[in-house]
Amino acid sequence: MTVLEALYYLRSLRSYKLPRRELEELQAKKLRGVLAHLEGSSPKYRRMLRQKGLGAEDFRRIEDIRKLPFSTKADLVREQQGTATGGRAHGKVITSSGTTGRRVALARTRERGAVNRALSLRTMFHIGIMPWSRVATLWGPREYWKREVMKDGSSRPYTTSDDYPVRLFGRNLPNLLALQTDLDDPGRDARALREFGPDFIYSRPSFLRRIARAAGTPLGVEPRAIVATGETVTETGLRELRRDYGAKVIRNFGNSDVGKIGSDCLYEAGLHTWEDFKVFEILKDGEPVSEGEVGELVVTTLYRDASPRVRYRTGDYVRLGERTRCECGSSTTRIASVEGRKDDCLFGRTGARIWGNEVSDHLESAFGLRDFRLVQDGAEYTLKLPPGEAARFALGPALGAYLEEMTSLPAHLQVDVMDQKDYWVKARPVTCVGVRPEQADLRD
Prior knowledge:
Blueprint: H1 3-15, H2 20-41, H3 43-51, H4 73-79, H5 83-86, E1 91-95, E2 105-109, H6 110-126, E3 135-139, E4 146-149, E5 155-158, H7 164-169, E6 176-180, H8 186-196, E7 200-203, H9 205-215, E8 225-229, H10 235-245, E9 248-255, E10 259-263, E11 271-273, E12 278-284, E13 287-288, E14 294-301, E15 312-320, E16 334-341, E17 345-347, E18 353-355, H11 356-367, E19 373-377, E20 380-385, H12 389-392, H13 396-407, E21 412-417, E22 430-432
Parallel strand pairs: 3-6, 3-7, 7-8, 8-9, 19-22, 20-21
Antiparallel strand pairs: 1-2, 4-5, 9-10, 10-11, 11-16, 12-13, 12-14, 14-15, 15-16, 17-18, 19-20
Helix pairs in contact: 1-6, 2-3, 8-9, 9-10
């Protein structure tokens, strides 16, 4: 652990438990610091603030952040053109995982890395992970990892802070196990876990569910908690993980552009957002949503980064949870569920979204599907299943009827075989591509 990481970690132990009013005062103070830095270093933000007649000191309350415009990934890419080989002066240049279609290289400062690792450490200790705990991490093949861009323009696989127990305590300690999951023999992973006997497991939920199905019941592993990261997970999935592993499930949520966003505590009462280092807005039509409603997550980072994330539209949609103090002591806003990205959904006749998590949960509980991809293109649907499963699938009419009921549209369904790569990239079971239904010719 570096001195900077230790400093942020020690500060964070108090800040997330501050009373709500004090937490918002801390956010406003940090926001003024970020804007003062941008006034001196960013021509774009200096010009924007001057045009609005604003300065950093005009942001006395955190609600004043709404005076600022939104930013998007296109803005980040435009601002960082040329940093793919020269951006290491900022700290690192890391590509995204590419699950949206292409990898995007963005520079990251050492300060951002220190914040993310300090908060990962806070999460670990908050759920009981200590240096002597037995921790297993399971990941897919290296070709599907994010990548760090080197000085000469080449790149190498880069693991995120989700495997921080390994990177913090050391890769060769006997109480730590790092596995790359085996598609051809998930039973191998189950045997390795049984032999190791972990107290905690870090992995994507789709990997762990696949391992449990291959091993059968009982799995023979009894960790204290599973840290499910990198993917959304349905209510059915959470119940299966708790049943098969006999453990609490701690969801860990973040994305490549803004870093860590939040995680569950041991009370499993919702994802605690890291509001002591970031500002989170959950908006629908530009306005804050009420508790229980879904909106787009907009993030402002309260530390210096290679490019500022100011009111950054993540494209992730979440359901707002409670703002009351949790039994764990945290006073930060909670996210009840992560619904997915803006196209992790189906579109109905009027263009209204039916969120993919709801559809996925029904397909898992009612149809028994696992490891599937349902893709909507207008009134056309493709259901991708693993080899062997596609040939046995006989629920087409029933599934078609369900889709028609949900969307109020005719559903033309075809079943296809899933590409092997789909096992390893981030699981996005329900997506909408191409033409939306309201734009398509929907005649039978």
